[in-house]
Amino acid sequence: MTLTLLPDLGDLLRLHPQYNAGTVVEIIRHLGASEVLWASDTDPDHPLRDALPAARLRIQDGFTADWAWADAEHGQLQGFLSQYPQGRERLRGAAGAEREFAALVTVPMLPAQVVGAEVLDAARAYHAATRAALDEGPGTHWREKRLTELAAKLAGQTGVVIVPLDDVPGLLDLLPDSRVPDLTGFAPGETSRLRALADRAWQLREDDDLNALLAALDRETGDRVTPGAELSAAAAGIYLAVGDLVAARELLERAAHALTDDLPRSLTGLTLARLGQVRDAQGDRELATRTYRAVLALNHAPAIAIATAEAGLKEPFNLNLEG
């Protein structure tokens, strides 16, 4: 039995039309798994923390640890190096390597590319360049120690494990029975397409064709990962962006009434926080305040929803369309 390392892109999943949270769900199903081991970002607002439970895929935790010490060691090293000209030059070299790798992984990729040799070799090159810039040993000890601890936790495990993309090459070296999945015969499906549509609608750009986006959202009924309530809430965000408060409120109230359970777990908080803002912008302060408080009373709400609700309770939301 082997351990399959499935690369995670974190928040970048929201930017990849064909390697998003919905795609990851489809890949896990393609691999015949009903659960995954979690060895990636501990951020509770990670997109897969919504998508996997919504798709009825179980997450088995316990493979990550409190690696705050690693961040602290890295931060101390950066602080030390920044005091000296040669140290600052080393930091610039490391930052350049990081930018180069980031430029690669922010370009939309197919699933087979994400697990392919080019990307994994680029991850190796990124860490090699970082070691060269910061010195082997003190410059990279924090990462090597973290990877070693993670590999020890995963030793002897089988199935599918979610791991950060740039950790994959190191774990392949440390875990002889591990591999990346062969995705040459895999193609993203409807779950991936719907997730890409919603992700796109939540992140508007100036050159977007808003009418086309609204039409696309209106045509869909949704699925478990991206339910109709989220499509309505995303469409409401577009109307809010152009100042159509009536349409935005109608869609958000429709979305709120369509919330049937706690999955995806972030959706209720996001929907209610935005609804509170719209009610505020329409001058319905009392109802807006109650809506904000409902967000804070949820068992789980994403950080952005909590921040929105807290800000709304302190001061009424005012829609500003200038600039």
Could you describe the 3D structure shown?
With 323 residues, the protein is of the alpha/beta class. The chain has 2 domains: 1-184, no CATH class; 190-314, Tetratricopeptide repeat domain (Serine Threonine Protein Phosphatase 5, Tetratricopeptide repeat), CATH 1.25.40. 58% of the residues lie in helices and 7% in strands. The chain has 15 helices and 5 strands. It has helices at 21-30, 47-54, 68-81, 85-105, 111-114, 117-134, 141-154, 168-174, 190-202, 210-219, 228-241, 245-258, 267-281, 285-296, 303-314, and strands at residues 3-8, 35-38, 58-60, 159-164, 178-179. It has a 5-stranded parallel beta sheet, sandwiched between helices. Helix 2 (47-54) links the parallel strand 2 and strand 3. Helix 10 packs antiparallel against helix 11 (228-241) and helix 12 (245-258) runs antiparallel to helix 13. The chain starts with a strand and ends in a 9-residue tail after the last helix. The model has no long low-confidence stretch (mean pLDDT 90).
Brief sketch in words of this structure:
The chain has 323 residues and is an alpha/beta fold. It has 15 helices and five strands. It has two domains: 1-184, no CATH class; 190-314, Serine Threonine Protein Phosphatase 5, Tetratricopeptide repeat, CATH 1.25.40.10.
Total DSSP helices: 15
Note the gap between the termini: 57 Å
**Count of extended strands:** 5
Q: Per the principal axes of the C-alpha atoms, what is the gross shape?
A: globular
Radius of gyration: 22 Å
SS strand fraction: 5-15%
Overall number of structural domains: 2
**Strand order, biggest sheet?**
3-2-4-1-5
Question: Unreliable stretches, pLDDT < 50, 5 or more residues?
Answer: none
Q: What does the largest sheet look like?
A: 5 strands, parallel
The helix fraction, in percent, is: 55-70%
SSE-based structural type: alpha/beta
H and E string: EHEHEHHHHHEHEHHHHHHH
